Amino acid sequence: MVARVLVPVDDSEMAMRALRHALDTFPDAEITVLHVSGGPSPMMGAATDLALSDDFEEAAEERASDALDRARAIAAEYDAEVTTEVRVGPPARIIVDAAADFDAVVLGSHSGSLSERLFVGNVAEKVVRRSPVPVTVVR
Length: 139
Known about the structure:
With about 140 residues, this protein is α/β, with parallel strands linked by helices. It has helices at about 15-25, 50, 55-75, 90-100, 115-120, 125-130; strands spanning about 5-10, 30-35, 85-90, 105-110, 135-139. It has one domain (about 5-139): HUPs (Rossmann fold, 3-Layer(aba) Sandwich).
């Protein structure tokens, strides 16, 4: 029985589809929506504002707010509640580490622009290969 499900999200439509799938498939499970703000990288990119922020955690929470608000609204459509978390670091590693505390992971197949996927790598692929629990990838 799947009692705890991790749903990593960004603000993409694929991530929101994954959340809907989790709510449909596991209606009685405790669902945690996780937003990972990428940590500073050699290429810097979108993480620059976090690295230069006076309050790193507050900046990560602010970056996650739109995606988490959308996730809460979707959960409300299902008359469900979700727990939300924000973490900072390399998304695939953070998701895999968090997965150990859950029975399953449900995530979108891809997100972001083509250039982000080329430079950052395919998070879904890394999670599928490394997760200690079953992973469902939603397209």
